[in-house]
């Protein structure tokens, strides 16, 4: 069945979002201590926790920054949280889920 164009027009947005709504706000530059904390976390994760290249790619700087910010820049808390997440990701493998393994409840 073909839907007439006039019906489609009702479902189009009535406004165009401004550029500020589309782009994320630029992040503030990191202080020297924050940069040092990020470097320490990255070195720890990439050398002792991450076992594969895939895990190292997952634990990129934006990802590690989210953990640090969520834990108020506590290095120890962030290390534990990233390690727990990697353990969970190893167990449940969310990156290899395909549509055939998902069912509705």
Give the biggest sheet: none
> What is the CATH class of the domain at 33-93?
Mainly Alpha
Mean pLDDT, rounded to whole units?
87
Structural class: mainly alpha
CATH topology of the domain at 33-93: Helicase, Ruva Protein, domain 3
Label the overall shape. Answer: flat
Query: Nearest-angstrom radius of gyration?
Result: 21 Å
Low-confidence stretches: none
Give the name of the CATH architecture of the domain at 33-93: Orthogonal Bundle
Number of strands: 0
Question: What proportion strand?
Answer: under 5%
Q: What sequence of helices (H) and strands (E) makes up the elements?
A: HHHHHH
Number of helices: 6
What distance lies between the first and last C-alpha atoms, to the nearest angstrom? 31 Å
Tell me the helix content.
55-70%
Protein name: CRAL/TRIO N-terminal domain-containing protein
Pfam families: CRAL_TRIO_N
GO molecular function, one term: phosphatidylinositol transfer activity
Domain CRAL/TRIO N-terminal: 60-85
